[in-house]
Amino acid sequence: MKSQVPPRVVQLNSDPNPVTSNYPAVLAYGFRPFFLLAAIHAAIAIPLWVAVLHGFDLPRTLLSAPVWHAHEMLYGFVAAAMAGFLLTAVPSWTNRRGYAGAPLAALVLVWLAGRVAMTLPLGLSPLWAGVIDLAFIPLLALTLLPALLRSGNRRNLAFIGLLGLLFASNLHFHLLGAVALPPLLLGMNAMLFLVTMLGGRIVPAFTSAALKDLGIAARIRRFQPLDRAALFAVVSVLLVDLAFPDSLYAAVAAAVAAALLAAQLSQWQGHRTLRMPIVCVLHVAYAWLPISLALKAAILFGLPLPGSSWLHALTVGAMATMIIGVMSRAALGHTGRALVAPGAAVAGYVSLTGAALARVFGPLLMPSAGSLWLVMAALLWCLAFLLFLKVYAPILWRPRIDGRPG
C-alpha cells in the first residue's frame, strides 16, 4: 500500500487572511457565532424535547415533539455547526478574507429566525414558518459560492452540493406539511456523506501532524482506492435510500459501506492518539460511521433491534462527536491558542460518547428501561455541551489572545 498525505486538507488552525475590522469579536469570524449557537442550541433543545416526552405542558408548536426534535437537531444544531465550519474553511481554501461583520450578523439572524419560527407558538401559518426556516441554507450557499467559483476551487464545490441536499430535504419536509420524519432521511444521509468526506481528509492528516509533534515515528497509511471506495459506498447508501428505502438493496449498501469505512479507519493509527484527546475524539466520531451503518444493515436484514439505534449512532455518535471535535480544534487554532483540549473539554468528549453509548446500546441491553436510557443519554449530552460552553464560550466571545484580528 502506498503511504501518502493528501496535498490539500481542511485547515482549521490558521488564518491566511485575517479579518481587520472594528466588529465585536463574536462577529469577527464565521466560526465564532455559529459554534456558540450550535452548542447553546444543543444544550437547550434536548432538555425541552425530553420534558415534553415526560408530560411537561409546553406551548404547542407546528410540530409534534419527535418531529421537532429530529428537525431541529438537523436544521438547528447541525446547520449552525456546518455554517461555522464552512464560513471558516472557505477563506482558507480560497485565500480570501474571512466572513465577518454585517453579512455574518445577517446569517446569524436568519438562522435564529428559523429556530424561532419552528419552535415558538407565534401564530405563523405553516407556509410562512416554512419560508423563514428554509431561508438559511440558500443564503449560506450564496455567501460561500462566489469565493469558491472565483478561486477555481472545484473540489470543494461538493460542500455546496451538500447544502443543496439539505435544502431539498427540508423543502420536502415542509411540502408534506412538516409532519413526517422520512423526508429528513435525505438530510441525514447528506450528513453521513459530509462526515465521511470531511473525516477522510482531516482525521489522518491531523493524526499524522500530532504524532510527529509528539516524536512518534508512525506513518499514517493511506490507500487511495480504499478511500475512494468508502466514499463511493456512502454515496451508494444515499442513492439506494432514495430509490429503494428500507429494502434488501439498502441493507446490502449499508453493510458494504460499513465494512469499507471500518477498513479505512483501521489504517489511521487511532490507538496512538489516546494522549491527544483533541485528535482521538475525531477517531471516535469516525468509528461511529461503520457502527451506524452496520446497525442499519442488521435492522434491514431483519434482526430484532430498535429501529432508531442506527440513526442515533449516526447522529449522536458520528455527527455530534465530529462536530464537538472540530469546533474544539477550530476555536483554539483560530484564536491563537495551542491545540490542546482543556480538561473540561475532554470530559465533554467522554460525556458525549457516554450519551451515544446509552442511547444506542442501552435499549439493547435492557429494553424494559428505555425511558431511563433516554434520560441518561439526554443528561450526558447536555453535560457535554455545557462543558464545551464553559471552556469555549469565553474563547468565542473574546478577541484572539495574540492580538491578531479574526
Describe the structure.
There is one protein chain. Mean pLDDT is 89; it is low at 1-10. The chain has one domain (25-397): Cytochrome C Oxidase, Chain A, CATH 1.20.210.10. It is built from 13 helices and no strands. It has helices at residues 31-53, 65-94, 101-119, 126-134, 136-151, 158-175, 184-213, 224-243, 248-265, 277-300, 309-333, 343-365, 370-397. Helix 10 runs antiparallel to helix 11. Helix content is 70%, strand content 0%. It is globular and about 50 Å long. It is an all-alpha fold and 406 residues long.
Helices, strands, pairings?
Layout (H helix, E strand, L loop, with lengths): L30 H23 L11 H30 L6 H19 L6 H9 L1 H16 L6 H18 L8 H30 L10 H20 L4 H18 L11 H24 L8 H25 L9 H23 L4 H28 L9
Helix pairs in contact: 1-2, 1-11, 1-13, 2-3, 2-5, 2-11, 3-4, 4-6, 5-6, 6-7, 7-8, 7-10, 7-11, 8-9, 9-10, 10-11, 11-12, 11-13, 12-13
Task: Describe the main β-sheet briefly.
Answer: none
Count of DSSP strands: 0
Supply Rg.
Answer: 20 Å
N-end to C-end Cα span:
41 Å
Please work out how many helical segments DSSP would assign: 13
Q: What is the overall shape? A: globular
Average pLDDT number: 89
Give the count of structural domains.
Answer: 1
How big a fraction of the residues is strand? Answer: under 5%
Using the coordinates above, name the CATH class: Mainly Alpha
**What is the assigned CATH homologous superfamily?**
Cytochrome c oxidase-like, subunit I domain
Spans of 5+ residues with little confidence (pLDDT < 50)? Answer: 1-10
CATH fold descriptor: Cytochrome C Oxidase, Chain A
CATH architecture: Up-down Bundle
Order of helices and strands: HHHHHHHHHHHHH
Q: In terms of structural class, how would the helical and strand content be classed?
A: mainly alpha
Helix content: 55-70%
